[in-house]
Amino acid sequence: MKLCFIGAAHEVTGSCTYINACGKSFLVDFGMEQGVDVYENTQVPTSPSNIDFVLLTHAHIDHSGLLPLLYAGGFKGEIHCTSATADLCAIMLRDSAHIQEFESEWRSRKARRKGQDNIEPLYTINDAEGAIRLLVPHSYDERVDICDGISVRYIDAGHLLGSSSIELTLTEEGQTRVIVFSGDIGNKHQPLLRDPQFLKKADYAVMESTYGNRLHSRPADYAKALAEVLQRTFDRGGNVVIPSFAVGRTQEMLYFLRQVKEHGLVKGHDGFPVYVDSPLAIEATGIFMRNKSSCYDEEAMSYVSRGINPIQFDDLKLAVTSDESRAINFDRVPKVIISASGMCEAGRIKHHLKHNLWRQECTVVFVGYQAAATLGRSLCDGAKRVKLFGEDISVCAEITILPGVSGHADKDGLDEWISHLERPKKVFVNHGEGAISEQYTQHLRDDMGLDAYCPFSGAELDLITGEFTQAEPIYITRTAKPSTAYQRLVASLDRLTAIVQSSKGLTNKELGKMADTIANLCSKWQP
Questions:
Q1: Which of 21, 152, 158, 299 is spaced 20 to 30 A from 289 at the CA atom?
Q2: pTM: predicted TM-score of the whole model, two decimal places
């Protein structure tokens, strides 16, 4: 039994862990890296076609976003997750593939004008559809036997609709080990979703540390705090622009805005419009309602029991088409604009920032984590000018951060999660910026007496002996990160290898034809 840390090691995004046990090779998450990468991840130590299955904690792209690439490389196993995660992945992976194709076409047009080659997408809509077909949904707290010797249980992590911690039980040659993966641990007392649930026993724990060095300072009355921002902005004739993750954070903001309207917390601007300008967010909002019985908390369900949709209200306007999106900024009525992406790196939010950042009467409200080197982080850090669509934009709008609306537990929440486990043999801290992960690991050692480690990508754990082998960090240089075209080429090579390995039953004529085709291909591209 071996476990290898692949992604989100000393980094926040790109979650991935590889396990070889009971004659099977499988992954826990396979996420896309977002923002600036500091370390280069080691490769999964086998080809996609040799991966037997994937266990998925939740639908966020930094945990699920490379599943279509895995499919493109020849993976045909099952992807196990909760029912709500399967529903969300169906829209989020399609959206991610659409972004890949759109951006590759946009970059290709620029490249062609310079006489350069086209830019290939990392993966396509067809790859995303293939991965979606492999999703296998499960209920919370259900014990699932994946195969002989391997069973899993999904526990509500309270981070996102359908998010889970995974309890993995492995039995091989009379030896049983229980490994717990926290996934992303949710913040307590959040709107809509239940608080994180806890696990009691594990031999080894792998846990996130996104906010492992800070405490959330949530306002006592979040709806009131939000209303104060709306009031002063509307009074001066401006718009409130909220960059928001389409799935999760947008629905939470709609919940708070419903309370603002329901209790008349904004005076003199009755019927102020709220625009949700994100097709993905609109689809996700429907999925939230379909999964309410398994994921909503008591407060949200009290609305449902009275026949009220807690994330819908009068004057809520949905912008689906590009024309509807563009029209928002030509209407001078003060309004709320919620748009993705939450870190302002892509999507329609960039257009709304272009139209509102230079207006001193407007406000941009950040309600979620902003990764290093993103546009959102720059604005939060006080940037006076930013570049949008090749144009320099002066930042005159009020920039406000409403703390506490975080999908991640703070340091106290992380401590509470790990405290419920009965002293695991080892704890591994990942999914956090390097210094934060190291700091939280030291806290687990010094203050909680745990045998804790902060792995780099490539580090290995022998699940039988408990021996842990740390890897050396590999720092990324500007030329080190492979292009999407190269990544697709590697995936194609994996797929070709799988085809060759499965061709033993073919006739000599068929094998000869295959060999000639590969030889001709090699001759064409041989330097």
A1: 152
A2: 0.84
Cβ within 8 Å of residue 320, ≥6 positions away:
279, 282
Q: How far apart are CA 345 and CA 348, in angstroms?
A: 10
Domains of the chain: 2-214+407-469 (3.60.15.10), 222-401 (3.40.50.10890)
DSSP for 246-286, please give it: TTTHHHHHHHHHHHHHHTT-S-S-TT--EEEE-HHHHHHHH
Q: C-alpha angle 202/206/211, rounded to 5°?
A: 130
Cβ neighbours of residue 254 under 8 Å, at least 6 residues apart? 274, 276, 285, 311, 312, 313, 316, 338
Paired sense of beta strands 150-156 and 53-55, if any: unpaired
Expressed in angstroms, the distance from the first to the final Cα of the chain is 41
Tell which residue, 208, 213, 202, 175, has the closest CA to residue 426: 202
pLDDT in tens, 455-501: 999 999 999 999 999 999 988 764 444 555 555 555 566 566 666 66
Classify 446 as helix, strand or coil. helix
In the block, residue with structure tokens 């039980």: 169
